[in-house]
Design a protein that fits this description.
mainly alpha; about 0% strand; single chain
Length: about 210
């Protein structure tokens, strides 16, 4: 059964929406402090959600959290304010989880991960190129090896082994570069680097 648009998708206790929603709406109006707080709450929420579903792959949890936060940042302009923020975020995390299973060739996890995703909760791809410009700006701050590893594995969908074969690096080196790059991108999204897209109001970024 598809989740309601009025209730969070996740099944953990508590009501994250009551704290998260006001912060997110303020962030959408350009409040940087609220944005950082909202991302912190979302990171904790996503980390708990993904730990339960990646119990056999604990090393993947943090990278997937950071990747989901990056997706939320890039797609924030498409957020529908009638939706619960936590439900929207978890739906995107599930989408990223499916991508992970596909990269690993794990077909057994695909259906469990996506059967109850309400497609209405997934943000539409922006048409104006704003997200691509934001991503390009963020990527410019990464070392070339980190940028290449993320592009190959996260954007082009290659497995770690395939990315290693294409670049000539070892599989372990690719994993390290992806982890470091995603961690760096998450810091930039949270406004840890002056002049990054996260440091400017949403209205300005989307012009």
């Amino acid at each position: 059964m598809a989740p309601s648009r009025e209730t969070p998708v996740d099944d953990s206790p508590g009501d994250p929406e009551s704290a998260l929603r006001p912060l997110w709406l303020r962030a959408q109006s350009g409040d940087d402090a609220a944005y950082r707080q909202a991302l912190g709450l979302l990171a904790s929420r996503l980390r708990a959600y993904l730990k339960r579903r990646l119990s056999g792959l604990p090393d993947e949890v943090e990278d997937l959290v950071q990747e989901t936060l990056l997706a939320l940042h890039l797609q924030r302009g498409t957020y529908d304010p009638t939706l619960p923020v936590s439900a929207w975020a978890v739906a995107i995390a599930r989408h990223k989880l499916v991508d992970l299973w596909r990269r690993r060739g794990r077909r057994d996890g695909l259906h469990d991960a996506i059967d109850d995703v309400d497609e209405r909760l997934l943000a539409a791809e922006p048409d104006d190129g704003g997200a691509r410009r934001d991503l390009a700006t963020l990527f410019d701050a990464l070392p070339q090896a980190q940028r290449q590893a993320i592009v190959l594995t996260r954007l082009e969908g290659l497995s770690v082994a395939e990315a290693a074969a294409r670049t000539g690096a070892s599989a372990s080196a690719i994993k390290v570069q992806v982890h470091r790059g995603l961690k760096r991108l998450a810091a930039l999204v949270r406004g840890g680097h002056e002049g990054t897209p996260a440091s400017r109001p949403v209205r300005e970024r989307e012009r």
